[in-house]
Amino acid sequence: MKKLFFIIAALMSALMLQAQDIQGFVNRQLENYPKSRLLDLYKSCFQDFMGAEHLVSDRQSVKAYLDRELQTTSLDNLMSWYYEPCGIDSQYFRVSLRAVKEGILTEDILLDAFMRSANSERRPAVEAWRDRWHKIIGTIELMNLSLPYYHEDMEFIDSILNDGKYAISHSPEYREAYHPHYRIVEREIFEREIRPLIDCQDE
To answer: Mind giving me the DSSP string for the chain?
Structure first.
């Protein structure tokens, strides 16, 4: 019953999506990350709608992966921000590993927040995401952005969705330019547990 409620809510959200909201997101993304391809716009939007790319249950392996990423990433290779909202509705936030490397968050705090977010019961069905993406891409098409590899990226995304999947990686250009190292955290968890720890650094 609960899953049906979230599916209905997701479908209503897709119908309520406004072109101006989509355009605003796209313009912000391209202003902040001018090397973005359609793949990167898509990734931010599906993270906002679907959350993390898959369910995670093995804490030990998730921690080991995070350990390796922290050990092999230098502060010079990280973006200057500690967090940023995903996509159009900011239902999820990207929390940079910078916050851990600078000692603002402990690794365990970020790991716990990420795992609870990834395993949330609110995850919509892929079909709901596909419907929402069709609305988003319809507006992007009208913007005539001249993004590199645009048609190739659109065909790749369509093939993923037609296979009943949704998750993809950042484009090579994005990874090389911006070195994305972050974890996705659900907005309620972020606002309650993560944001206060980061924002208090500015006080």
So the answer is: -HHHHHHHHHHHHHHH--HHHHHHHHHHHHHH-TT--HHHHHHHHHHHHH-SSS----HHHHHHHHHHHHHH--GGGS-S-SEEE-TTT-SEEEEETHHHHTTSS-HHHHHHHHHHHHT-TTPPPHHHHHHHHHHHHHHHHHH----TTHHHHHHHHHHHHHTT----PPPHHHHHHH---EEEEEHHHIIIIIHHHHHGGG-
